[in-house]
Specification:
Elements lengths: L1 H16 L4 H7 L20 E4 L4 E3 L5 E4 L4 H19 L5 E3 L7 H4 L1 E6 L11 E5 L3 E6 L2 H13 L15 E3 L2 E5 L5 E7 L7 H12 L5 E5 L1 E2 L2 E2 L8 H4 L16 H13 L3 E5 L7 H6 L28 H16 L5 E3 L10 H17 L3 E5 L12 E4 L7 H12 L3 E4 L2 H4 L21 H5 L3 H8 L8 E8 L7 H8 L2 H10 L7 H9 L1 H7 L14
Parallel strand pairs: 3-4, 3-5, 5-7, 10-11, 10-19, 11-14, 15-16, 16-17, 17-18, 18-19
Antiparallel strand pairs: 1-9, 2-8, 6-7, 6-9, 12-13
Helix pairs in contact: 1-18, 3-5, 6-8, 10-11
This protein binds acetamide.
Length: 545
């Protein structure tokens, strides 16, 4: 029912866009053309609760952004400035960001867009927000700045897509009336970017961070090392970056982040309320390190750099003491650059390592992560060793994954290991959409948009990992491996439109899950991506306007 109503609306939007008289005129006559007004809550991810009604708010030349941050005014003002920067280019309005005037609530206090931090708003948690829109004002309330930031993403999507353009556009700029109260379903909502198979510059990663933030993703997992490239400067082992980072798949020049660049990325992510999870994959996926230092190899011979796309052929030398000096130095230096909780140690596809050696290696390496104040994350093969207390395993299995492997993961979860779900045949963003997709891989099958969205994490846990307690489920993460991905256009083509669906699985209550409704909300994002200059896959499953 709802889906059908929205479909009618989407048809209405394309119809109006084609008529010459346009929106501004309809507005001057006081008519509310549906094209000028995104229905409240028609955003991605779907809000937890929406009560639409009342007059819309219109942003005008005179609109002010008012900050009520109390002792945290500086943090709230930072979000207010981000909102102003989003809105100014297309509206052409000054949109000053001002402290809320003192005194009792009144016209001056209530008018405009208000961002309020309320330390008593415990119902909004660490990331939730409330948005109230009426004729005189739009108010965003949150307990934490992250909540205000997520509320700004909702507010932004309530405006027409052309708000995203960097040149002045025709208004009106109206936000539908009513109230949204929104809190995330899961605390962990991630995306992974493989910067090893192909290197991505700081600017390219920042561009992706901005795209993730639009969908309330709060974790960026960076796969910083693999057979093809080591991408972060380590002072105590400098050849990792200078040699190990000097190429990539296909033999291009590769690259690496200096510590200053990496810190800049982490700070940029934090300013968008994303936490960076750095990954150093080990003991397998280590050819770039092994090529940089002969001593790390069991036979003392450094292999050549590798620019192909095979997996499972490399391993650190589990029996050599220098391996653990190396691991300690690397983890210490990366932990020192990491304000976030997690340090990801990989652990997947260690096909050159016996199960006994794997367990020995993980038993020595996990305490090093704890020693430097971080929590272990690993791919789910970590369950084949003994995961450290509080560790989080990232499940990347598929429907054909063996019952034994699943049982091992479920048992680890019963013993306290947390789980993040990244099922490869659902949300690996590097999988081809269909047989005609030029980019991407196909080993986990084709993953069209509906397949990536239309599943439920809790049900997945119950059916694919039976025995794993629901409380183990921390959230979801969409990995993007980069064997075939070389630039931002490639990232966007594979991530969009699947990434927003994963973001919605992580954020929205299960009760909002509905493909027919989702595909219409998703379709409305297409013009927004075009306004932002982004590429995306025009899936035939989505009714693009
Ligand atoms: C993986 O895809 N090897 C984690």
């Amino acid at each position: 029912m709802l889906g059908a109503a929205l479909l009618v609306l989407a048809v209405g939007i394309s119809g109006v866009a084609a008529t010459p008289q346009g929106n501004a005129q309809g507005d001057a006559q006081g008519k509310e053309s549906p094209a000028t007004l995104v229905p409240l809550g028609q955003v991605v991810p779907a809000p937890a609760s929406v009560a639409a009604g009342g007059s819309p708010y219109e942003i005008t030349q005179r609109t002010r952004i008012r900050i009520e941050g109390g002792p945290r005014a500086r943090e709230a003002r930072a979000v207010g400035r981000q909102l102003a920067e989003i809105l100014r280019p297309a509206t052409g309005y000054p949109l000053p960001v001002l402290p809320s005037p003192p005194g009792p609530p009144g016209w001056g206090r209530k008018d405009g867009i208000r961002l309020a931090l309320d330390p008593r708003a415990n119902d909004l948690g660490a990331e939730g927000y409330r948005l109230t829109s009426s004729r005189k004002s739009v108010t965003l309330t949150a307990r934490e700045p992250a909540g205000l930031f997520h509320g700004v993403q909702t507010l932004r999507q309530q405006l027409p897509p052309r708000i995203e353009k960097d040149t002045r556009q025709r208004g009106p700029w109206k936000i539908a009336g009513g109230t949204i109260k929104d809190v995330p379903r899961f605390a962990y909502r991630g995306a992974m970017l493989d910067v090893s198979r192909h290197f991505f510059t700081v600017e390219q990663v920042k561009r992706y961070i901005d795209q993730l933030a639009l969908y309330k993703v709060n974790t960026l997992h960076l796969h910083l090392s693999d057979d093809q490239g080591w991408r972060i400067a380590i002072d105590s082992w400098p050849r990792l970056a200078t040699h190990g980072g000097s190429t990539q798949v296909g033999g291009g020049p590769g690259g690496y982040y200096t510590k200053a660049q990496y810190k800049h990325l982490v700070a940029y992510a934090a300013s968008r309320h994303l936490e960076v999870v750095p990954e150093i994959d080990m003991p397998g996926h280590t050819n770039a390190a092994l090529s940089s230092y002969a001593d790390l190899n069991c036979d003392g011979v450094a292999p050549p750099l590798y620019t192909g796309i095979e997996v499972g052929f490399s391993s650190l030398c589990v029996g050599k003491e220098i391996t653990y000096d190396f691991v300690d130095d690397v983890i210490r230096e990366i932990a020192a650059l990491t304000p976030g909780r997690y340090l990801h140690i990989g652990g997947d596809e260690a096909h050159q390592t016996t199960p006994e050696d794997y367990a020995t290696f993980m038993a020595r390496v996990q305490p090093v992560v704890a020693k430097y104040g971080k929590t272990v994350m690993g791919w789910h093969q970590l369950a084949g060793a003994t995961p450290a207390d509080g560790a989080v395993a990232q499940y990347w299995g598929l429907d054909r994954t063996s019952p034994e492997e699943r049982a091992e993961v479920a048992e680890a979860a019963r013993n306290g290991t947390g789980l993040v779900l990244s099922p490869a045949d659902r949300i690996y963003l590097d999988m081809k959409y269909d047989e005609d997709t030029e980019l991407g891989l196909g080993w986990a099958g084709f993953v069209e948009v509906r397949r990536s969205y239309d599943w439920d994490p809790a049900e997945y846990l119950a059916t694919r990992l039976p025995g794993a307690p629901a409380s183990a489920l921390k959230g979801v993460e969409a990995p993007l491996w980069s064997e075939t991905i070389e630039n931002s256009r490639h990232i966007e083509y594979m991530a969009f439109p699947r990434l927003p669906g994963v973001a919605e699985l992580g954020w929205s209550p299960a009760a909002t899950h509905d493909w027919d409704g989702y595909k219409v909300r998703l379709a409305a994002q297409g013009p927004r991506w075009e306004a932002l200059g982004m590429d995306y896959y025009r899936s035939p499953q989505v009714p693009w306007p």
